[in-house]
Amino acid sequence: MALTDMASLLRDYRAVGAFNFVQLELAEAIVLGAEEAGAGAVLQLSENAVRFHGSLAPAAYAALRLADQASTPIVVHLDHATDEALVDEAIALGVPSIMFDAAHLPESENVERTREVAQRAHTAGVWVEAELGEIGGKGGAHTPGVRTNVDDAVAFCAATGVDALAVAVGSSHAMTHRDAQLDNDLIRRLARSVPVPLVLHGSSGVADSGIDAAIRAGMRKINIGTHVSAVMTHAVRKVLSTDSTIVDPRTYLAAGRSAVASEVARLLRVIVEGHIRVGAPGSTS
Ligand code: G3H
Ligand code: ZN
């Protein structure tokens, strides 16, 4: 059994890679990549992906079973949930970590709703991530200028009791070019003052060197979604464009799965290398 919880994973690693999946083969690829790298990872499913499937349980159970069978520690995480009923359902299904995303609400409402969700989740032993300073890029908006204020972040954590905080530091969701410039000085100031691990969303738009620098500045959870989807889609497109007689989905899904597994392994080496904690799987001690 390699299904684990976020607190344990973050105890072992200075920073962890968290990858979004939409369908089964992408989830399999993320676990395969983590196994190839010999590193723990987070397998996350967003509320948007749940909406695509029409319900949470089939995808969540698949992720939980993949984690169970993995040879490396895997956390299953519900990502960007705005619907409290969905959070409660995930907790009931045994998902050990959730992000409650009320960053779009007025701040007092964000605090109040997040505090209530955190209380319920903690009663069930579930880890809670929240967001302050809306990270751009969803719904087409590209707003890399948004920044989280340090004092606001400290106050938000105290008022809500969350376990991790997603902060706006220059990244933006759904980027297909890895050229976002992060504010590492702000990350350093947030990491010094905020009492919980910091989460970098929209990491698809950040180059390897930017991810490495962000971790050195204090980022602990690196969320990557669009990039792994793009790798899968490009690999599938390449197979389909070379042979118009293909009808068996396994033919192209195998190519997509294998490409994503290699890229996840490579990214995990970037995230973990130089940042591994003594005692973590893969460390030399
Ligand atoms: O919550 C998920 C991440 O923030 C993924 O963002 O698709 O831009 O990498 P991304
Ligand atoms: Zn995100």
Automatic annotation (TrEMBL):
Keywords: Lyase, Metal-binding, Zinc
Pfam families: F_bP_aldolase
Residues that, per the record, bind Zn(2+) 2: D101, E131
Leading EC class: lyase
Necessary cofactors: Zn(2+)
InterPro entries, sorted: Aldolase_TIM, Class_II_FBP_aldolase, FBA_II
Gene Ontology molecular-function annotations: tagatose-bisphosphate aldolase activity; zinc ion binding
Active site positions: D79
Manner of cofactor binding, per the entry note: Binds 2 Zn(2+) ions per subunit. One is catalytic and the other provides a structural contribution.
Binding-site residues, Zn(2+) 1: H80, H173, H201
Zinc as UniProt keyword: yes
Gene Ontology BP terms: carbohydrate metabolic process
EC number(s) on file: 4.1.2.40
Protein name: Tagatose-bisphosphate aldolase
Organism: Microcella alkaliphila
